[in-house]
C-alpha cells in the first residue's frame, strides 16, 4: 500500500471520527453533556492526546534520524568513490579497466535511485547485487604491484573499497523503513478518539468543521512524512543524489 493511500485512510478515519462525534452530540441526552461529564471526558482525552503527542514525536524523530543517516552515507560514499578513483589513477594505467567499471556501476546506481521505483531499489540489496559490488573489490585485490608505492596504493584502494561496501550495505538496510505497524495503528486510533471528542464538545458550524478538517489533514500529512522519511531512497521525499552525480562527473579523469 502506498504512503499516499495510507495518509488518505488516516485522514478519513480522523475526520470521520470528528463527524461521528458531532452526530453523537445531537442524539445524546442533555445530562450526558453536563459540565461534570464533559470535565471528566476532557481529562481522559487530554491523557490520550499527551500519549499521542509523545508517540508522534518519537516517530518523527526516528524517521528523521533514519533519513539523516542515509543522507550522510550517500555523501560519505560519494567522497570515498572519488578518493578510490584518484588512488587508482595514481597506481598507474593498469587500473583503467577497474576505474571504468566503477564509473559504470555508479552511473547505473544513480539511474536506479533516480527512478524512485521500490522494486528496482529493492534489487540493490539482493545477493546478486552484492556479488556485483564485491567483484570490484576482487579486481582491486588481484592487482599486481611492481613497487612499494604501488603496494601501498593497492592496500589503500582495498581499504577504501571495504568502506564503500560497508556504507552501501548500511544505506540499503536503513532504506528498508522501520515504522512499526501496530504503533501506527495505535496512534491513528488515539487521534480518532481525540477528534471524536472535538466533534462531541464543539457545536456543528462551518467554522468548526473547517478547523477539524485542517487538523485531520495536518495529522495525515505528518504521518505521510514519517512514512516517506523512513524510505529515503524511494517515494516523494528522497535523499539528494547531487553528491553521487558530482562524483560521477569526476570519475575517470
UniProtKB/TrEMBL annotation:
Cross-referenced Pfam families: Bestrophin-like
Ranges annotated as spanning the membrane: 6-28, 40-60, 181-201, 208-227
Keyword Transmembrane helix: yes
Signal sequence segment: none
Keywords recorded for this protein, A-Z: Membrane, Transmembrane, Transmembrane helix
Entries under InterPro entries matching the protein: DUF4239
Name of the protein in its database record: DUF4239 domain-containing protein
Species the sequence originates in: Trinickia violacea
Amino acid at each position: 500500500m502506498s504512503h499516499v493511500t495510507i495518509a488518505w485512510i488516516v485522514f478519513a478515519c480522523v475526520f470521520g471520527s470528528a463527524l461521528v462525534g458531532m452526530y453523537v452530540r445531537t442524539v445524546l441526552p442533555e445530562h450526558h453533556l453536563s459540565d461534570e461529564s464533559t470535565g471528566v471526558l476532557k481529562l481522559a482525552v487530554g491523557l490520550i492526546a499527551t500519549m499521542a503527542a509523545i508517540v508522534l514525536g518519537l516517530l518523527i524523530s526516528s524517521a528523521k534520524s533514519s533519513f539523516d543517516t542515509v543522507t550522510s552515507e550517500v555523501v560519505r560514499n560519494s567522497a570515498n568513490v572519488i578518493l578510490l578513483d584518484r588512488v587508482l589513477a595514481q597506481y598507474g594505467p593498469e587500473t583503467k579497466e577497474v576505474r571504468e567499471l566503477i564509473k559504470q556501476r555508479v552511473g547505473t546506481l544513480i539511474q536506479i535511485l533516480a527512478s524512485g521505483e521500490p522494486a528496482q531499489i529493492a534489487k540493490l540489496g539482493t545477493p546478486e547485487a552484492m556479488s556485483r559490488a564485491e567483484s570490484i573489490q576482487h579486481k582491486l585485490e588481484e592487482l599486481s604491484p611492481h613497487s612499494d608505492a604501488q603496494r601501498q596504493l593497492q592496500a589503500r584502494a582495498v581499504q577504501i573499497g571495504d568502506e564503500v561496501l560497508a556504507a552501501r550495505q548500511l544505506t540499503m538496510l536503513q532504506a528498508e523503513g522501520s515504522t512499526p505497524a501496530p504503533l501506527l495503528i495505535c496512534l491513528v486510533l488515539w487521534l480518532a478518539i481525540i477528534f471524536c471528542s472535538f466533534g462531541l464538545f464543539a457545536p456543528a458550524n462551518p467554522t468548526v468543521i473547517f478547523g477539524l478538517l485542517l487538523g485531520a489533514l495536518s495529522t495525515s500529512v505528518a504521518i505521510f512524512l514519517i512514512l516517506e522519511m523512513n524510505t529515503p531512497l524511494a517515494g516523494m521525499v528522497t535523499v539528494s543524489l547531487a553528491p553521487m552525480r558530482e562524483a560521477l562527473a569526476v570519475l575517470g579523469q
